[in-house]
Each structure stands twice: as structure tokens, then as C-alpha cells.
Here is the input.
Amino acid sequence: MTAIATAETAAPTDHQVPLALSPTAPSSVGPERLSGRDKALFILAAIAVVFALKWAQSFFVTLLLGILFAYTLNRLVVWLELIRIPRAAGTSIVMVGVLCAIALGTNSLSGQIQTILDQVPEAVNKLSIGVAKMRRGETSTMQKMQTAASEIEKATSEATGLAPPPKQRVTRVVIDPPGFKLGSFLLANSMSAGALIGQATMVFFLTFFFLLSGDIYKRKLVRLAGPSLSHRKITVRILEDINDSIQNYMFMLLVTNLLVALLTWITLSWFGLENAGAWAVAAGLLHLIPYLGSVVTAVVIGMAAFVQFDTLSMMLLMGGTSLVIATVVGYFVTTWMTGRSAKMNTAAVFVSLLFWAWLWGVWGMLLSIPIIVIVKVVAQHVEHFSPVAELLGD
Here is the structure.
């Protein structure tokens, strides 16, 4: 009996916290105890992961977009379940509602979008004329400078009694750039549009199936965490924190982008810019891309103002106003909401933005913050990754 009691006392139970996961117990493996071989293997593994992310960009981007949209729409499906609507029916209702909302918004702005497309040839013509005027101005300025330099050289030669050097004949070789081929341009853009439509379709079906599955993957991950109750609790806590962080981030994006679109529409309508609604929607969508989206919006709106008013002052005024709106909303509202939801270090967020933009381009800029939020949540609950959580925290 004594031996059995001793064995039972020595055997760990599911309710006991393992030594490696105990918050007060020292970690058996830490960064300072890694050998040179382990460090080399870690570096090689990191390079392999980066290469795999770059090589399979289309797959990972589509997968992450589907997961983000599923997290965002999951609350609606859960609410429908609370009112006794089955999950399959609730998922179908939510996805059909999203498609109807997109179609309704596109239809309501189709007239303004068509007007903008009809004005593109006129805009290109005006911009070409403006660029030609600027080039003529630069040419005349250079000619004046060359004439002044020749006169100074002639006066200097006469003052010193030297004959002016004979004029040398300069042969200019003009290389004509290859002409613009409209067929190639349309073919390339049609292929890009087809790829984008295909990717959007895959994201739609991924979102639908993730919503339809519900908590199946969550329960599978909890079972994969092992038989220990402490491991399962940590896994559940990580998944819940990731769920809350992503949903808060997506809600923040919705609020800030709607605010940018609303303020842009009010401002452009007050200035009298045509198709203000379409430009406001474009400003809200481009605001999804950190930093770069605001600059592109300012340039495009400035060009539209130049085409309509044909003055440089209105171009600078409207482009600058849209940039100010995006900056103010991004600096105050976005920073405040991000700080409350994720408590992220600004420098770490910017470094993550640079890395994912280098890796995946525009898609990386869109997905960088959700990815870094997930990394921070996981690092907060895994003891060996606590330095990463410290670096990313505010």
C-alpha cells in the first residue's frame, strides 16, 4: 500500500502544471542555453520558412484572407444560432447578405464609376498637354542658360584677346522607345483581373467552409495539445485571445475606413468635385493599405481635381485635404483603437509592415498587422517566446 501511495504521489495528474509551463519554474531551455549548432539550425529553419512563404504566396494569402473574413463574420453566425437558426442556414444567410451588400454598393456607384471611366481619355489628354508645357518650359530655360553661358564665354575670350574656339558639330542620336501596344496592355490587365477574380472566389469559399465548420478546428487543436489539462487550457486561451484580437482589429478597420470614406465624401462634395461618392469609396478601400494607400488616394483625387478645375491650386488643395483626412484618422482613431485592442509597439508594427510588404507586396501590407497580432498572442502564452512578446508589446 505504501508503494502504491508513493507511486500515485509521484505520478503527475492532469491538474498539475508541468515544470516547463509553470510561471514560477525556471525554463529548462532558453535562448542563452542554445548551442551553436541549435542556433545555426534555427537560422536555417527561419530562412526555409521565409522561402516557403515567398514561393507559396498565393496559397498563404488566400488562406489568411479566408481565416480573417471567417473570424470577422463569425459573430453574425453565432448570433443567428442564438435565435435557433442552424449553423448551415446561418452561414448561407450571412454569405448571401455579404454578396448582396457588395452588389448593391457597386450598383449604386456604377453611374459615377462609368462617368469616371468615360473621362479617362480627356484626363490623359489634359495631363499630356500639361507635361508637354512643362517640358517646353524646361527646354526654354535650358536654352537661355546655354545662350548666357555662350555670351559669357565670348566676352571672356574677347577680354583676354583670345579667339573663340571653333564650334564643334555635335551629332545627336535619338533612340525611339518602343511604342505603346494597346493589345498587350489589355491582355496583361485582363489576365491580372482574371487571377484576382479567381482568388476572390477561393477566398469566398474558404470563408464559407470555415464558418460552416464552427468550432471543429478549435476542438481538434485542443485535442492535439496533448492529454495534459494545463496544455489544453493554454491552447484554449491562445485561441480565444487570437479570436478576440482579430475581431477587434477587423472592427477597427471597419470603423476607420468608414470614417475616412464619410469625411472624404463630405469634403469633396463641399469643394464641388464630381463623382465624390466614388472617390470616397476608393479612399476608404485604399485606406486598408497602410501609408501607401493614403498617398495613392491623394494623387488620384488631385488628378481628378486638375482635370475638372484645370488649376494647380485645386489639385494641391483636394489632394492635400484627402491626405490630411487619412493622416488624422490613422494617427488618432486607428492608433487609439489599436492600442486598446492589441497593445502593440509602434516600431515593431512598422518593422513587421516593412517585412511583409517586402515578402508579399500589397497583400503583405494588408495582412502584416493581423499576423503580428497572432504572433504576439502566441508568444504571450508560451514561456520560451516571452522575449518576442516583450519586444512586440507597448
Summary: The chain has 15 helices and no strands. Residues 34-138+197-214 form one domain. Confidence is low (pLDDT under 50) at residues 1-31, 173-177, 179-183. Residues 218 and 239 are 7 Å apart (CA to CA).
